[in-house]
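Handoff note, outgoing to incoming analyst
You'll be picking up this chain. Sequence as last confirmed:
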Amino acid sequence: MALAAERGTDMPVLSNPPVDAVADTTSATSERITTTEHAPSDRTAADDRPSGRKRWLWVVAVLAVVAVGAGVAIVVSSNDGGTTTDAEPITLRAVTAETTDLIEFTDLSGTLRYASVNTVGAGTDGVVTSLVSDGATVGFGDELYALNGLPAVVFYGDVPLYRDLAEGAVGDDVLTLEQNLSMLGYHVAEIDDDGNPVDEEFVVDGVFDSATAEAVVRWQEDIGIEPTGVVAPSSVVVLGGPSEVIATSVDLGDQVPAGTPLVELNQVAAVTPGVFAQSAGEIELLVSDGQELASGDVVYAVDGLPVTALVTGVDFDRELSDGVDDGPDVAALEEMLLALGYDADGALAVDEVFDEATELALVDWQADLENTFEEVDVDGTLELEEIVVVDPGTRVGTVEVTDGAVVASGAELWTTTVDTTERVVDTAIGVADQELLAEGTIVDVEFPDGEVVAGTVRSLATSSTTDPADPSADATLAVEIVLPAVPESVAALNELDVVVKLVDEVAEGVTAVPVSALVAVGDGRYAVEVVTSTGTEFVAVTPGMFSDGVVEVDGIAAGTQVVVPS
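Most recent structure output, in case you need it:
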């Protein structure tokens, strides 16, 4: 670990007056002080106060305090009357000692990356006959790669395909397939003579029936593979949303075994497979493009029956009513009711228990909904078709139907997106120092251009690792820091080295000057050159904390003008 500034290391010696030349503090107006010889680094602890020719330079320097302010040029001559021309002019300036807060840091190396990075492997053995290019962005329905001429198409979802799917299969992987087929337009088979879509009775329900098989056949025909009605896992790559290609690991023509890494992806947004009609009927849309969904929003109604958004990461797979087992889905409902102002006269608690207070709050909410939507049943029971569960941060994407249209059960109404351009920083810390980066700790992350962003420690590994290149190195714990944003200058970069800055020490309300103002006077003591009404003089100071090019000093007051090199 390297400190941002080390005490007493490489201390610049700007001038070295004798000990008897060090005086008390006097302040004066800041001016520029110019000489042409006697660079500050030439003065040593053995020098006497300037005399003879050196005294002449000293006097000229003092005169310059007044002369420069008046725009007068100072030319310094030698004792024999000649003009000194063989040295570059040395410009000094006076700065003000300030009252400030100093912070001493320990720096840790870190790597900035996207929060969601995926490596996609070959779904089967074969020859690479097609491959997406570096930098491309792929979305659902796009071909990511092909082996032996058979494409692997991007679907969106949380559950990957892990088995051959055919008629009779049931499960979440079937649901992923059906949702994506609906999003791709295969829910509808044809258009009738009047130009209206004819429903193929393809329901998005996780059941692979004959209608699902017919939709699969149409999709397979369109992507150019044998229309068997059976979906192999190797024909689909399930991603969480649009993803940018960071790098490809193979070349066209390579023979690869199953599982070989092919493509590395940054997921730039999360897209759930959309919102689908809970039942058939005339649709009333109550959302707009780009709208962020909140718990309690009525998002649509079918034949007068409203469907409400419930924003949570909890799974809902049962109706909720008096007598159900305790669970996090009950707590999510209670949170929504409280947020909407239904608190059962103050008795409702978020406790995962569907009790009398929960039922009363639910009834009150349903009664208010009934004032607008006549088909609402005010019965104290929350049925699955009455809600649509979405993740926090979900926004309405592309609306697929027209307000007032008649839709079939399972028809996609709109896509939804969750922004995941979140960036994280990976770093590591010694096991003995782990309390410095506990979960929830706020830390500064410094970028190459000097900009600093505050981040929050999201996770700290519970198992340590040792650098394989240096087995003798101390074991460390991996740390993930989440950032709210990154500087615009690096927004387009996939990966970047950054510095994580840990606070070691804080000095509040101290008097500080630039480090370059310190003058070594011997015996480990220091002074600063102070501007007075008649010139300058040296004043003894005691250095304290060093940080970012400034140093805490005791011995002069804030507002004192001190000399530093320009």
